[in-house]
Specification:
Layout lengths: L1 E6 L11 E7 L2 E10 L2 E7 L14 H10 L2 E12 L9 E3 L2 E5 L24 H13 L4 E2 L3 E5 L7 H9 L4 E3 L5 H7 L3 E11 L9 H28 L4 H4 L2 H13 L1
Helix pairs in contact: 2-5
């Protein structure tokens, strides 16, 4: 089995000897790195590209997720930086989110909008078993980790206003970022068990006086090694997991969908 990792720039270090490749999909070409981590096959996709050339609203989400399934990935972990709406969550903390609120506007949210119409259940959007492995591994490593949280996804690339953050807090949001939607939705549509590691890089607007890109990058660099260590320890355990039934049930639909492109 191949474990997929979707992360930001810098996290390709998890594959120190990985081979970089371009993967062609019906939704465009994407960059990747293939290799082994703790004896497990891993496919890494840099969400923003290796040169960080794609802003959040232009990430090739459909191509990324299609490429994972095309390469045999059935379990995957996303890594996202986010701001804390919940003031108890501090910069440098890790949150293994369990719910999301979608406040994006102009993205493509589904593979199934033409020949097939498919309604996927998103009651629990993130894989409980992968989340459990990530939480237990983080605790074992002594990392400050939150076992649940609600991720608010905004369109970007701008940061949010303090009024928006006040609203998100009233709605139960804990962290705010720009990349988890539609990634988590598309993963479910492709039958991929998926979970997200959120690294808190700052307090959201209104909780601190202003938000800057520089502080986000600074915290991400400081915590990069911790996240990579967490992944290295967790990947063998994730590789051994069975997919959730809700994902396995998608296989027939996914195979039918993907056959369309082999015919073409």
């Amino acid at each position: 089995m191949v474990v997929g990792i979707i992360g930001g720039t810098g996290f390709e270090e998890i594959l120190r000897k990985g081979v970089r490749k371009v993967i062609k999909t019906p939704f465009g070409e994407i960059e990747s790195a293939e290799g082994e981590v703790n004896g497990c096959k891993v496919l890494f996709i840099p969400r923003h590209g290796f040169r960080h050339q794609y802003p959040p609203h232009k990430v090739k989400y459909k191509a990324n997720i299609f490429a994972l399934r095309q390469k045999g990935v059935l379990k995957a972990v996303g890594i996202s930086a986010a701001g804390a709406i919940n003031p108890q969550m501090k910069p440098g903390d890790i949150v293994i989110v369990d719910q999301f609120l979608d406040y994006t506007k102009g993205r493509e949210y589904t593979f199934y909008d033409e020949e097939l119409v498919v309604h996927v259940d998103m009651t629990n959007p993130y894989s409980p078993s992968i989340r459990r492995v990530l939480i237990e591994t983080a605790k074992k490593l002594g990392l400050r980790v939150w076992e649940e949280g609600t991720y608010v996804c905004t369109e970007g690339p701008r940061f949010e206003t303090k009024a928006e953050i006040a609203m998100f807090r009233l709605l139960g949001g804990d962290v705010v970022g720009m990349t988890n939607i539609p990634e988590v939705i598309l993963a479910r549509e492709m039958g991929i068990s998926y979970a997200t590691i959120v690294l808190v890089t700052n307090f959201a607007a209104g909780i601190q006086p202003e938000v800057t890109q520089e502080e986000v990058i600074e915290i991400a660099k400081k915590k990069e090694k911790e996240i990579i260590t967490l992944l290295r320890e967790a990947i063998p355990k994730i590789e051994e997991l069975e997919r959730e039934e809700i994902c396995a049930k998608m296989d027939e639909i996914v195979e039918k969908f993907m056959r369309k492109f082999t015919r073409e």
